[in-house]
Write a structure and sequence with these properties.
By secondary structure, this protein is an alpha+beta fold. Helices cover 41% and strands 11% of the residues. A two-stranded antiparallel ribbon has the order 1-2. Strands 3-4 form a two-stranded parallel sheet.
């Protein structure tokens, strides 16, 4: 929490400018709040800078997002490309909902489809970055990302966390999306 608090303080000028850009772009809310599933399957409210039009979940591909998605605002494209939209999650870490490193938090409908092995990713707090993020992010198919997250849960250590932190900046440069749904499947 201390690291996240310090990072939030250091990132506050960038976060402030990004928030101003979101607000000036269309006058809508700056923050996007979404219920995600955390450690032990407990729901929490994830915070992000809003990068899509207001009400985007009810349009187009719903929760799935792909590169070039028309729901992404021009400012949102820049924020997503630089992963600046994730900065408010430092507050989730300070609150204790998340960790800096761990599996990315997912939506309830995804968790409901997990196998018993896949549910292991809920044994740790979700993270801002993680093993799956440095190995391809959303360019990987969803089952492969889950398997990488389970591997992390089974092998986590301070050294592995340092390795993930060191490789995260390079992973950010690699882009985010795969296919028409970013590797996700919409709920049926």
């Amino acid at each position: 929490m201390t690291v996240a608090g310090a990072a939030l303080l250091l990132a506050s000028p960038v976060l402030g400018l990004a928030a101003l850009a979101v607000r000036l772009a269309d006058g809508g809310p700056v923050l996007y709040r979404q219920t995600r599933v955390g450690k032990d399957g407990v729901d929490f409210e994830l915070l992000k800078l809003r990068t899509m039009v207001v009400g985007a979940e009810a349009q187009g591909a719903g929760f799935a997002v792909d590169r070039g998605d028309p729901r992404i605002t021009p400012v949102g494209r820049v924020l997503r490309r630089l992963s600046l939209d994730e900065l408010p999650q430092l507050w989730n870490v300070v609150r204790g909902d998340m960790s800096v490193i761990g599996p990315r938090p997912t939506l309830r409908y995804q968790v409901e489809r997990y196998t018993p092995r896949q549910r292991r990713r809920l044994e740790v707090k979700p993270g801002i970055t993680g093993w799956a993020q440095i190995h391809g992010r959303a360019r990987l198919p969803w089952p492969e990302r889950i398997e990488l997250d389970v591997w992390y849960v089974e092998h986590r250590s301070p050294w592995l966390d340092l390795k993930i932190l060191a490789k995260t900046p390079l992973a950010l440069l690699g882009g985010t999306y795969k296919g028409a749904t970013g590797g996700w499947k919409n709920p049926s």
